[in-house]
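User: Good morning. I'm curious how pyridoxal-5'-phosphate would be positioned relative to this chain. Could you predict the structure with it bound?
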Amino acid sequence: MAASPTRDDFDRYMTPNYSPQQAIPVRGEGSRLWDQADKEYIDFAGGIAVNALGHCHPALVGALTAQANKLWHLSNVYTNEPALALAKQMVERTFADKAYFCSSGGEANEAAFKLARRWAFDNFGEKKHKIISFRQAFHGRTLFTVSVGGQPKYSEGFGPIPGGIVHAEFNDLDSVRTLIDDDTCAIVVEPIQGEGGVTPATPEFMQGLRELCDRHQALLVVDEVQSGVGRSGKLYAYMHYGVTPDILTTAKALGGGFPVGAMLTTDRVAPSLAVGTHGSTYGGNALACAVGLAALTTIDTPEVLAGVERRHALFREHLEVINRKYGVFKEIRGMGLLIGAEMSDDFEGRARDILPLALEQGLMILVAGPNVLRMAPSLVIPEADIQEGMARLELAIGQLVDPS
Ligand SMILES: *Cc1c(COP(=O)(O)O)cnc(C)c1O
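Assistant: Good morning! Here's the predicted structure, ligand included:
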């Protein structure tokens, strides 16, 4: 029998663009995971806001295995039942009239940005191509999406980058007013900046962006790759704001761990994605859409969504208790089960140091930049797992504060 893969194999065989923790998880159930040595972990990371129903949820395993025994893939020369059913469900449950499928968040945004440009081109001519996005924003890793994203470190060294993109300050309408004009085709915004530090948009900001778009005949593109599919406590975070997007992108939690992404839009905009303008080999893949439909159907219920709000309160309470003892956090923020704890001045830039300490205690957790500890657990994480995870986090923070 071949020896089991080891962490050293990562350095030996994989490109060095990641630096994973030492332990290698081999199986998971709900919000618990076990590594090669059978050590157990509580999962507050959720595969970075992906495993919205935890690991191996029966509804997802059931949908995946049923579809695996029927039909996997056809190409877009044909359509298939799971894709049609998922599109119908998404249209019925959101502002959208039409859905486009792909396999990741970056691809959903790539489609969204191309559609915004093409729609403006079709209706107003090529001069209307300016895209306004925000500093600290994250929209994916393709060259177009890192360029629209607001973190220069992700596009540095990959130039020349696409032009016609400008960046405003998040939650600052005046900074948008100085940039927007009639040549603007789209404003692109995350309702909660995820990678940028778990910062929710204010209602005035989202509503102001909608008004500015309307005044300048630009499209409002809402990137809900991280905030969508129940994460915020509503099916999509835009629903908290009383604002209707023109285009919405969704991925991560949509597949609950299976790669699937979608772009949603209206009948006013969709015609610009005419036959042949855009596509993706795997977009609408039958396995992906079958799992996506099961995830969406399971999450989009009053019980699960109310449970997200309840768990948000629990997370906050626990974090505040830890903070009263150790004073490591300056602010605890976020929506639903996307929660950020910003490090206090004494621990500035040290969020990442908590990751190995937490892992040692049996807890998986995330950061969002150098200064924010991030949690994006399963939306149905049992309360006992929250308690146990928080007890482990407290031990890890204790070690951060007093390493002796
Ligand atoms: C993760 C993320 C993306 C990129 O998604 P991928 O599936 O990694 O391509 C885009 N936008 C936001 C807001 C994200 O959080």
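The chain has twelve helices and 17 strands. The first helix runs from residue 7 to 13.
Let me know if you'd like a different ligand tried.
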